Amino acid sequence: MTDRHELSVTRLIQASPEAVWRIYTERSAEWFCPRPWTTPVVDWDLRAGGRCNTTLQSPEGERHPYEGVFLEVDPGRRLVSTGAMTAGWIPQNSDMNFVRIDTFEPEGDATRFTSRALHWTAEAADTHRTMGFEAGWGAVADQLAALAEGSGS
Questions:
Q1: Of the candidates 89, 84, 22, 18, which has an alpha carbon nearest to the alpha carbon of residue 50?
Q2: Residue 86 to residues 29, 54, 66, 82, 126: CA-CA distances in angstroms?
Q3: pLDDT score of 3
Q4: Cα 122 to Cα 135: distance, rounded to the nearest angstrom
Q5: Hey, which residues does 12 pair with through a beta bridge?
Q6: Is 153's pLDDT higher than 70?
Q7: Which of 18, 66, 103, 146 has the fewest CB atoms below 10 angstroms from its CB?
Q8: 17 in Cβ contact with 104 (< 8 Å)
Q9: What digits encode the pLDDT tens for the residues 101-145?
């Protein structure tokens, strides 16, 4: 963990950064949370200051809405978001606020996908880790990779 209280996962995906970006942004409902959970709401306005709203749902119908904002959008390369505020730059309080940074780096004919969660405090990072960060975010990175590589379509 760094001084930014960072948790991260990375995958080498056998597809171009543009292909991974396309799956990431256009088919988010198919990979964004670990199965058997689903993502029935993906309401994204892919621009700095745009909405980043999603809802995760358990097989039993338990729903976890996430309302946030994109801070940076560099198509095919980098996406930064946070739940610390909503569209219109309206702050919101939560013990689990963090900044999410997803990068899509070319590596030969493949893409090095990295998803990072930067927390305000060590305690928040520890809570996120205890909630199953590595397994959960690792599963969604695998789901994204499967779709981008064609084995999940």
A1: 89
A2: 20, 12, 10, 8, 24
A3: 64
A4: 19
A5: 112
A6: no
A7: 18
A8: yes
A9: 999 999 999 999 999 999 998 999 999 999 999 999 999 999 999
Provide the token pair at 18.
Answer: 């543009």
Strands in the chain per DSSP E: 6-13, 38-44, 51-57, 63-74, 78-82, 85-86, 90-91, 98-107, 110-119
**Distances from the Cα of 140 to the Cα of 29, 50, 54, 133, 137, angstroms:** 11, 23, 14, 11, 5
Tokens representing 79 are 């996406």
The pair of structure tokens assigned to 92 is: 């919101």
Q: Do the strands 85-86 and 78-82 form a parallel or antiparallel pair, or are they unpaired? A: unpaired
Q: What is the 3-state secondary structure (H, E, C) of 29-61?
A: HHCCCCCCCEEEEEEECCCCCCEEEEEEECCCC
Residue 101 identity: I
CA distance 92 to 85: 5
User: Which distant-in-sequence residues (6+ apart) come within 8 Å of 144 by Cβ?
Assistant: 11, 13, 20, 23, 24, 31, 113
What is the token pair recorded at 97? Answer: 């606020």
Residue 97 — very low, low, confident or very high, per pLDDT cuts 50/70/90?
confident
